[in-house]
Amino acid sequence: MRLNLSRLRVRISLAAAALAAAASPLAIAATPAAAATSYCKSSSCDLASQPYTGYIYFEMPRLTPLTMICWTDTQWYDGTNRWFKVKSIYGTGYTSANEVGNQTRVGHC
Fold first, then answer.
1. Tell me: the pLDDT tens digits for 7-23?
2. Minimal CB count within 10 Å: which of 23, 26, 98, 102?
3. What is this structure's pTM?
């Protein structure tokens, strides 16, 4: 009888492991807000106090999460004249639209 109980424990453990492995992709897919975060897609993204290259004060590293606030069209830089006002762990400022990955819809500044 003891041998059967050991086999049952092994089967329960294997079933629990299989269930956990099957559930992990569902847990990732169940958080679309986390997957929809904007980020710095360049090797580094400029952060400026105004939407002009002369006001750049910091370079954010690649994949820095960004919260997009609004957009404005002004000085051409990096192939576009669109700048996003963004919030990051490094502060709030402007960055060129071509440096922002996974852009979300925001209004005009």
1. 545 444 444 444 444 44
2. 26
3. 0.67
